[in-house]
Structure formats: structure tokens, C-alpha cells
């Protein structure tokens, strides 16, 4: 039976290990998995688009393990008290197809996105980067700040959001973090003096959060929010002025900021820089862009981190999602003698909450 | 929070409602959904193939509801006490992306496959069909027999499996069903005198369970087991001799028995026959083939049946898979004040079972 890691369990696990340690551990897993990139059976995610959002499935596997993530993106959700992004995921055994973990991925996605951004910045930004602009101060923003503080060496974050309450929330949440937090009144102001610019905005629109006039030599742009068709954050001239790095090119051409560029617009995949087969930043003055959309391999890496941590620390419980049968060819028999009812752990009936 | 319907809960629900009633209810849902076929955002399933099997994701949505199924196919699993096919699925709200149901789909897949087969046979087989050959007597076979008995009017089933124990299991399971069960020593013998031939074998191989010499005028062939690349059950000459019906053409050309035919081999989609826009069987002598591979819409229909039934009868419990937050933009806050820990229902800690 698969382990089930609920949202409360994931919160408890992260609180126990510490957020920065979890992000660092996930980043280590992502790096290790990106270094064996050719081992994976990769595909662009499957998206069902609707008027107000998208629901996506993101599968990936190597010879031994399989994972997928379910994730939505509905920017209007916050108006009715729901998250813009909700996610869960599964690990499975490739040899048998049996699921081994069912886990929340809302919190974990925030950690893995921040881990990926920080890993890319550590690889691509100038090593002396200390100041980051953080544009979009919603649910993902604090995770980006903490990841860049601990993995990249950022000490100052310049904040902007069209919703001042979002910025106020971030400032309150990170007041004890040791980061210097500078609240700005526009994206342009936030970008001034920044070594790194992180955009993590939620609107499903072709926006231009960063325009060419904001650029300074040597800047690294971590573009996180432009991640589905019709949803961009960078002006085309920003991309033209920069060397652009991506996760998985076929997916990023559809979903990333480069969706607005010609199909042959030159990009470099991050894993190629990590393994040394291609060059990253070529000079201190070059502008680099990490056009991040979120790739299934990062969820694979993060799920394995959470699975290992949950097993090591005793979090989670078993889920009777698959019938337990003495004779697997006798599925029908479960209806005759109720043997499936005798599965060793049946979640508690008192947890039933019916309308 | 989504409703969670475990395998034991699904078994209990089906035992309470009765298997034939569940299959009939699912068949009604499938018919209703096939009649509004153009309403759905359809795609071929995403498959990760490995040495011994395949893991697939099958998403589909209309304007209001989304579903996907996770399902594997590992024929060697039974040798180590696991099911060949294990499945679970999710329903979600298209407007918000929030999951509404997490359900077992191993048992439910067997019911929906049988419901689809029976719906196709009721539409395509001669109305006076009473005798069915059932080749492959594994986990899916009893469900096929019950569905054909109650929805199509079959009274006699002629059985064959290369594993005599599988046939013995089927005979024991269906001894009180009212069906006349005739055990045969070969596929060819089982097919003799049959109005309908159902093949539901598991080997991942290009097999020829049914060959042209076994055909009789007016036969309907319900080919269920040929359902992924490299896995077929019918000889090419059987397909050439018949009028062939499919679920979703782009998927069946890859996965169905017609994978061995040219890309322009003529097929008719079942929904077109159901809504009267295309002809089904053209004469009592014509041979018809339903080249079934299993389509996401059938799982959508089945998940909605199980969801409605679970809500009506009080089965299932709520799953804290998504963080519950007072401010959805404040995901980070869950780590500071533990508000996600205050989710109203946290599955019981005593259910933890760690290695």
C-alpha cells in the first residue's frame, strides 16, 4: 500500500527539518537527477485548459521509479479563498506499476520551484550577486527568498506586488529571516540595483513585468511566473538581449516566456550547463534569463526527497488505494467474500464527513 | 477537501448496490457521456513504457468536470502476488482546479470496461445473441460475463484460458449466477457456436487469439485485451473480414488491434453509432469487431457514478491532500503558525505503519 503524506503531515515534516534544509535537500536531488538527464522518459505535460485556468498532469520515469504531478493554475481562486496552485503527486515502482507514495504537492511544489530557481541562479548568476528584486509577492515568493538567501547568498530583497497586502504579508513572514527587505512602489524601482530579478506573478496574461529599459549589465533574470500558453512576464526585447536557459525545451517553447519568440530562438538547457557540456554565463556583463516553467523531473526529485524524509522520520500513513488480494487474478472474489475489506489498515470510519 | 473512496469502501459500496446494478449504472453514464462526445477535451493517454509493463495517465474534461486515471499494465505481476492492472483516479472541478474525489479504480475499471463492452455489444451484436465465448479468464473476466448476462441477454458462456486454474476460479465465482458455463480446451473450441466472442487476455505480445478460420457469419467480437503498442489479440484477417468499431480513433490506432493495420484502415467510432449519425451492424451476416482499448471518458463516467453513489450512501472520508489556508496567498504562513495542521480532519495517527 502506498504511503500517504497529507498536507498537514508535509507541513509538520518541513517544520521539523527546517525549510531551508528541505529546499537544499530538494535542490541536491534536482541537481543529481539533472546530471543523469538522458536516463529519463520525458514528455511535455498534458494540459486541459478552461476559461479560468488549467489542470495539468506531469509524468516522468527512469528505469526504476515513476512519478506524476497533478497541478492546477487558477489565478482567480484567491478571490474565493482557494489557492491559485494546488497540487498532489504520486511515486510508483516501474517494475510493477504499484504506487509507493501519494503526497500533497502544494507546499512541496513551492519548495521545488524555489530549489530549481536557486540551483539555476547558482549556476548562471554572477557569484557576487547579493541583491534580488522579487516581483510578485504571492504564495511562492517567500520560498524563493529563502532559497536565494541560503543557496545563492542573497542578503537583500527588493519587493513589489500590485497588491500591497501581498507584500506586507511577505515582510511579516520574513521579518526574522535575516534578509534586508526593501518595499518598492513599482517593478522598475524594485529592479534598480538588483543583481537578480525574480518574477513570480500569477496573472494568466501576456504581461511585460520586465522591459528592456530595466536591464542592467550582468543581471540574472529568474522568470518563474510565465509558465503556460498566454502567460508571460518578459518583454521580447529582454529575451533578445539575454542568453536564455530552459529546463526542457519542447515544453518551454509552448509554455515559457519564449513562447513569444520564433521556434528556432536559441536556448540552452540547464542540465547541459550543470554537466559541463555547454557554457552558462559567458561574461560578467552578459544578461542571463532562466525561463522556468516547472518540469516533471523537479517533482520527481522533490517527491523522492519527501518520501525518504517521511520514511526516516515516521510521517504519513498507508492508503488502501489498491485492493489487497490473496489471488490477484480473483478481483471478482473481493465482492463475494469481502477479502478486500480485510485489508490490514482501513482508514477510520469516524473520519467520514458527509454533506 | 476531496472525498476519498478506498478499495475496501468501493467493494462495500458495490456489494451494497449489487454488481449488476453498478455495471448498469456505469453503462448508463457512459452512454449519456458518449452522446455528448463533442463536449469533451480529449487526448490520447500518456504512457511510460518499461521492460515489463506500462504506466498510463488518462485525462479528460468537459466545461465543468475533469478526471484522470492512473493505471498500469504488468502481466508478470500475478507471479509475485500483485494485480496485472492497478488503478486509481481523480475527479476535479474545472472552475477551480480543486480535486473533488480520489478513488480506487482497480475494481471500478473492471466494471467500466465490462459496461463499455456490453454497451457496444448491445449496439452492435445481433439482438438474438445468447452464447458468448470468453477467452482469458483472469481478473476482468467475471465482470464481462455479468455485464453481458444482464445488459445483452447472454445465457451461456464458453470459457477458455491457457491457465486452467483461472477458468476454475471463474466457474467457482459464477456458479450461482444463472449463467450456463461451458469449459473448453482451446480458443477455437470456445468460439464454436458463439454469437459473441470476448477476448480479455493479458500477455503483452502480438498474439492471434482469434484467427479468420474461427469466424462465423454474424459474429460480434469484443476485443478487450489488445490495448497497448505490441499487444494485440486478433489476426489481421479477422479485422479485414469485419466492420470495426472503436472508442477514440487516434488512441486506438496506436494501442488497439488495428495498430497492425494501415493508418487509413476504416473504423467507426461507437459514439457515432449511439447518436445515430453512422450505421452500426449492416446485416445479420456481417461480422462486427469492437476494438476496445479503454478510453478516459469511460473512467470519467464511472468515477461520477461512484462519487454520486458514495455521497448518496455515505461511503468514503475526506482527504487532507490540499492545504487548508485562511489566506490562500500565505502558503508560507502554514510553516510559521501551523494553520495547515489545524485542518478539520487529519487522518488518524494510529493508522501510521512504518517500516
UniProtKB/TrEMBL annotation, chains A, B:
Q: Name one Pfam family in it.
A: OCD_Mu_crystall
Classification via InterPro entries: NAD(P)-bd_dom_sf, ODC_Mu_crystall, ODC_N
Name the Gene3D superfamilies on file: NAD(P)-binding Rossmann-like Domain (3.40.50.720), ornithine cyclodeaminase, domain 1 (3.30.1780.10)
**What is this protein called in UniProt?**
Ornithine cyclodeaminase
From which source organism is this entry?
Limnohabitans parvus II-B4
Amino acid at each position: 500500500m502506498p504511503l500517504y503524506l497529507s498536507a498537514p503531515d508535509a507541513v509538520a515534516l518541513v517544520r521539523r527539518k527546517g525549510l531551508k534544509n528541505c529546499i537544499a535537500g530538494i535542490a541536491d536531488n534536482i541537481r543529481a537527477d539533472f546530471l543523469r538527464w538522458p536516463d529519463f522518459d520525458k514528455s511535455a505535460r498534458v494540459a486541459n485548459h478552461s476559461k479560468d485556468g488549467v489542470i495539468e498532469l506531469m509524468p516522468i520515469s527512469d528505469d526504476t521509479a515513476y512519478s506524476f504531478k497533478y497541478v492546477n493554475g487558477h489565478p482567480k481562486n484567491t478571490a474565493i479563498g482557494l489557492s491559485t496552485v494546488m497540487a498532489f503527486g504520486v511515486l510508483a515502482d516501474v517494475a510493477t506499476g504499484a504506487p509507493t507514495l501519494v503526497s500533497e504537492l502544494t507546499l512541496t511544489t513551492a519548495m521545488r520551484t524555489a530549489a530549481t530557481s536557486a540551483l539555476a541562479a547558482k549556476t548562471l548568476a554572477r557569484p557576487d550577486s547579493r541583491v534580488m528584486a522579487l516581483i510578485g509577492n504571492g504564495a511562492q515568493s517567500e520560498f524563493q527568498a529563502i532559497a536565494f538567501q541560503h543557496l545563492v547568498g542573497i542578503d537583500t530583497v527588493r519587493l513589489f506586488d500590485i497588491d500591497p497586502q501581498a507584500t506586507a504579508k511577505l515582510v511579516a513572514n520574513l521579518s526574522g529571516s535575516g534578509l534586508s527587505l526593501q518595499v518598492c512602489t513599482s517593478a522598475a524601482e524594485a529592479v534598480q540595483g538588483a543583481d537578480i530579478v525574480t518574477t513570480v506573478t500569477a496573472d494568466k496574461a501576456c504581461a511585460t513585468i520586465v522591459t528592456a529599459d530595466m536591464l542592467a549589465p550582468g543581471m540574472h533574470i529568474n522568470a518563474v511566473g510565465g509558465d503556460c500558453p498566454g502567460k508571460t512576464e518578459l518583454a521580447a526585447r529582454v529575451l533578445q538581449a539575454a542568453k536564455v536557459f530552459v529546463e526542457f525545451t519542447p515544453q518551454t517553447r509552448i509554455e515559457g516566456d519564449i513562447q513569444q519568440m520564433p521556434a528556432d530562438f536559441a536556448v540552452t538547457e540547464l542540465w547541459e550547463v550543470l554537466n559541463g557540456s555547454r557554457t552558462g554565463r559567458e561574461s560578467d556583463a552578459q544578461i542571463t534569463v532562466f525561463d522556468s516553467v516547472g518540469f516533471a523531473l523537479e517533482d520527481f526529485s522533490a517527491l523522492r526527497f519527501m518520501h525518504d524524509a517521511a520514511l526516516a522520520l515516521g510521517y504519513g500513513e498507508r492508503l488502501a488505494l489498491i485492493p489487497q488480494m490473496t489471488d490477484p487474478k480473483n478481483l471478482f472474489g473481493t465482492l463475494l467474500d469481502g477479502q478486500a475489506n480485510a485489508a490490514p489498515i482501513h482508514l477510520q470510519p469516524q473520519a467520514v464527513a458527509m454533506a
